[in-house]
Amino acid sequence: MTIFSEYSLWFTPLCIAIGVAIAFFLYKNDHKLTDAPLWVRRLLFALRAFVISFVLFLLLGPCIEFWKRTIEKPTIVLLHDNSKSIVITKDSTYYKTKYLSDYQDFVKKLQEKYQIANYLFDETTLSANDITFEGTGTNISSALQDIATRYYQQNIGAIVVATDGIYNAGENPKYATTEFASTPIYTIALGDTTQGCDNMISNVLHNNIAFRDNPFLFRISIESHALKNTKSIVTVSENDKVLFKTTVSPNNEHYFTTIDCQLTSKEVGKKKYTIHIEYHDQEINAENNTYICAVDVLESKQKIGIFYESIHPDIAAIHRAIESNKNYECELICLSDNKNFSIRDYNCCILVGLPSAYGKGKTIFSDAIQANVPCLLLYNQATELETVQAQNISVRISNNKKAFDESKPNCNNDFPLFVLDETCKNLLAQVPPLLVPFGSYSVSEQTRTLCYQTIGDIATERPLITFSTCNNVKLGLILGEGLWRWRLYDHKINGSFDAFDALVNKCIAYLAISERKELFSVNCESVFHENQDVTCTTELYDKTFEPVPDQTISFVITNENGKEYPFTFSPNDKFYQLRAGKFPEGTYQYKAATIVDGKELVKKGSFFVLPQQIEYKQLQANHALLQNISEQTGGIMVHPNELDSLLQHIQTNTNIVAVSHTKKERNTLLNMPLILLMLLLAASAEWFLRKYYATY
Question: pLDDT (tens digit, 9 = 90+) per residue, 415-430?
Answer without folding.
Answer: 888 878 888 999 999 9
